[in-house]
Write the structure tokens for this entry.
Amino acid sequence: MKLLYKKIVLGFAFAGIVATGCSDQDYVDANTNPDILTEVPPENQFLSAVNSLESQDFEAYYDLYRRIMPWMQYVTPVNGNGANFTKNIDNFSQRYGRLYTGIGDALVDMEKLVEKMPEADQAKYVYMLRIERILKAYYAFYVSDIYGSIPYTEAWQARYGGTMTPVYDDQQSLFAKLDGEIKEAITTLKTTQTTPQTGLGNFDPYYKGDVTSWIKAGNALRLRMAMRLLKRDQSKAQTIINEVLSNESDLMQSNDEGWVFKGASGFTGGGNWNPDGLYATKPLVDFMWNNGDPRLDAFFSPNGYSQTNINALIATGDLPGGTTAPARRYLGSFTSPDDSKAAANAKYYTARTAKVNGADIRVDTLSLIQRRLFQPAFDEGSGVGTGVSYLPVITYAEFCFMRAELAARGLTGDDAETFYNAGVTASIEWYNEVAVDSKLSDYTALTGSQISDYLSQTGIAYDPSIGLDQIASQSFLNFFKQPAEGWALWKRTGMPNTTTVLALTDMKSSGVSLAIPRRAPLPLPSETSANYVNQKAAYDAMAKDAGFGAGPSDAFGRVWWDEQ
């Protein structure tokens, strides 16, 4: 796949996208007047939607770096987690609004542009519209995944004669509808058309419009949705699983077929993408170090105690002469607030300052995350990075781990060990590719027998008696760049936890174990809202589920699929 360079696209009329700062009248006009939709090629709208989907820097800043990643013990802030950090849900979540302004509206406009064409021309866009529907279904699923009921069936229709007050689709109905749309799209993409098709080409940053790749991506998405259904409707999940796995030629077979966005370093170059100050965690670092995980230096940086920095500290009398760099320079932060504030652990959070080549260098005992893994343009002091930005949707490794889990649960005829090994291998190789292309510092590229050596380690080598545990633990590691999916995995399986192969910490504040949020807090319905009646009806229906929580704003409650 070629790289997509984020830029201001002059001449592309991204019609239907309501920009921040537009007046209320602009918004009303854009949603009621179909003539505002300029005559532009439909594929422009697809690129617009992808750009909107992948450029969510507020989601990175608020949802991932400061909420989900600390909750899931992927990272901590510089001084460890605060006493009530799991209750901090300000500005969470950012994904909801983007569905209606930026993604869904652009993709609906894309369909309407085709509908306005002569019938003979419409026949050229059969495949393109099915690819569009897979993308729209993905993002609607992504939003509902943590919100529950959302407007979908009646959404985006106001300027085409539809309602300005759409009803909410409940999650059970929505998941079924989305699965049906993806299934129909895949079936159509597999059906030869009598009219030559217009391809998306470079307007598709994921697959350049390759139909076979989109068939595989659609099936992977159906399987991910089926995994969510295992807790609530295993019969429906089993039907989807059987359909998806019925033809191996329609399934991902390698990392090259993963659903991944690649952009230039500048695509994630803004300040909200900046991951500085996020520290590795003790549970992950200890597990990866103790087992010789080849991904360790792709995830985390060595701490500040290089020999160069040590020599500088010796020169200023901060360290005794003869001090040498430690054999282990990967150390993680305590994730429990009580542990990080304990007097005995203060030494880990006390940094020194070394004077190196006339510059003050912060020397930390703890490891930072590999910042260029999340922002390749990050300036580490030697200049702005120039690597590739990788933003995965569904990787081949995830697909393998799903198949491994289903096999371990006895829901398929697959061999769990085969797909577990394939998943671990794919994950290590994928992170190696990302690390090299993102130009990470202090990274040693994968060589020789590292993967086979890792897979032979006790606790890593597949053991059917703890197979589900191992699969979940490795899947969790694979989601390091997709922490929202790591969060979903934890909610879905209860793993990893304090007793799994990858053991997380019982995070305590003043001796009390902290609960972890499970869904997005919902905004309270306002009677002045035009859609108040439908919103309240949706909330009332969700509240009938015992797991919904104390009210709409209760982030510790559950959505429909996340059954207790």
Notes: The chain has a mean pLDDT of 93. The longest helix spans residues 126-147. The two ends are 42 Å apart (CA to CA).
